[in-house]
Amino acid sequence: MVKIEDFEKILVNIVTPESVAAIVVEPIQGEGGFNVPQKGFLEYLRRLTNEYGMLLITDEIQSGIGRTGKFFAIENWDIEPDIVCLAKSLAAGLPLSAVIAKKEITDSLPGGCIGGTYVGNPVACRAALEVINIIEEEHLLDRALKIGERLKERFLKMKNKYPLIGEIRGMGAMIAIELVKDRKTKEPATQETAQVVQECLKNGVFVPTAGINKNLLRMLVSLEITDEQLYEALDILG
């Protein structure tokens, strides 16, 4: 793991910072293991990109659209990126992605350079507008925080019961539990994680994994889930 204080040294020694166009970062890692960045890291990246004239691009494809209790996960750090990438929850399952950029960036692009066969699908775009309306009307950002509280509360109880559970991490309704063979060595319990997933499937609950060792159970439940449905799934899990 690269320490904050070493990142700039590596950047300067390996490449010329002025030749780097942008730094792309997930505010909270998704497939990488639901890792929340250490304190000051994202602020540091913003300062670094400003200093060297780079763009800061946040990948919100998994963490965005209300998952963390904010519409964009980066809002939890009060940082303004130059470009934000969105997809997945944006259109509630319909295939749609979006790139949001500052005006000076989009205005600098030559006409016709952005396009594609499926760009601007009207049905998917209409679905995305409805998603945004529902999030606002039903106060789903607040709901994400409540879901997160319920998940953490249950997972902490499970951790006291099962030595297999290591770290519990995430933010809002974007929560994962790490399964380890030993809490001190943190040896990944990859096989055991796969067994848990299979047992959950047999009982009607799909729990995807995450992390480079596939030893994390990640929770990305719908923000429309009821407490009854949530607790039913958690009862099956633990």
TrEMBL record:
Cross-referenced InterPro entries: Aminotrans_3, Aminotrans_3_PPA_site, Class-III_PLP-dep_AT, PyrdxlP-dep_Trfase, PyrdxlP-dep_Trfase_major, PyrdxlP-dep_Trfase_small
Record keywords: Pyridoxal phosphate
Pfam family, one: Aminotran_3
GO molecular function, a single term: transaminase activity
Cofactor(s) the record lists: pyridoxal 5'-phosphate
Transmembrane segments: none
Keyword Cell membrane belongs to the record: no
Family, similarity comment: Belongs to the class-III pyridoxal-phosphate-dependent aminotransferase family.
Entry protein name: 4-aminobutyrate--2-oxoglutarate transaminase
UniProt organism field: marine sediment metagenome
